[in-house]
């Protein structure tokens, strides 16, 4: 199978994860301010958890089952963005280490991954969502053309409870329109 593609943006390199990323992932993810926003990441978060997670990242990838490390030449690895299957749809998820928030990095990374996903597949929609308190993530999704489709409950491992989760979807058309104003 061909190696996972690398995506380059103006400032970022989005590449496949490597086992040697584990210490860096643990140092950025062992932060409740990050993990409280994520469904499946426990807190505290250790290097062993990062190693386990990296071992589970399959060598085989497909556009709806892929993980990109978000890197820049100055800081190295800053976070992750990936697609996974949610029912019959692809769902996008992402996180960035706290020192790198508020600089437009995730808008840049997610726009590139979504653009790649729509260019690589015949899909006309994808889904995502945010915990109800996550205004920054919702702002990114709104900028990219996502719309809200409902509210469900999702487990948050770091908070050890089910939390209201705003569900969203993005169509190919809405994304193309959103790109014109991004
Ligand atoms: C959410 C997260 C990905 C944002 O990454 P980022 O690189 O800081 O995001 P960007 O700078 O690209 O864009 C953030 C947008 O949210 C806006 N924003 C930030 N805080 C906000 C708030 N409290 N209320 C409303 N909007 C807010 C910013 O103004 C910006 O919009 P703008 O470019 O129109 O000004 C990052 O904070 C993170 O990883 N958090 C922890 C994990 C997480 O929440 N993952 C997503 C789970 S759904």
UniProtKB/TrEMBL annotation:
Residues 12-173 form the N-acetyltransferase domain. Belongs to the acetyltransferase family. RimJ subfamily. Signal peptide: none annotated. InterPro entries: Acyl_CoA_acyltransferase, GNAT_dom, N-acetyltransferase. Keywords: Acyltransferase, Ribonucleoprotein, Ribosomal protein, Transferase. GO terms for molecular function: acyltransferase activity, transferring groups other than amino-acyl groups. One of its GO terms (cellular component) is ribosome. It comes from the Bacteria. This is 50S ribosomal protein acetyltransferase. Pfam families: Acetyltransf_3. PROSITE patterns: GNAT (PS51186). The keyword Ribosomal protein applies.
């Amino acid at each position: 199978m061909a190696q996972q593609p690398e995506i380059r943006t103006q400032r970022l390199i989005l590449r496949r994860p490597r086992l040697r990323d584990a210490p860096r992932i643990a140092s950025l993810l062992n932060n409740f301010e990050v993990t409280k926003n994520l469904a499946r990441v426990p807190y505290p978060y250790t290097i062993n958890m990062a190693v386990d997670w990296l071992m589970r990242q399959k060598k085989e990838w497909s556009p709806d089952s892929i993980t990109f490390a978000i890197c820049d030449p100055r800081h190295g690895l800053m976070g992750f963005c990936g697609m996974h299957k949610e029912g019959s749809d692809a769902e996008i998820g992402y996180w960035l280490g706290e020192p790198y928030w508020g600089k437009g990095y995730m808008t840049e990374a997610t726009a590139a991954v979504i653009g790649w996903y729509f260019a690589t597949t015949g899909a006309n929609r994808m889904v995502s969502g945010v915990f109800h308190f996550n205004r920054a993530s919702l702002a990114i999704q709104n900028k990219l053309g996502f719309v809200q489709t409902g509210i469900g409950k999702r487990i948050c491992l770091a908070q050890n409870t089910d939390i209201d989760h705003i569900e969203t979807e993005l169509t190919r058309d809405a994304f193309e329109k959103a790109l014109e104003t991004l």
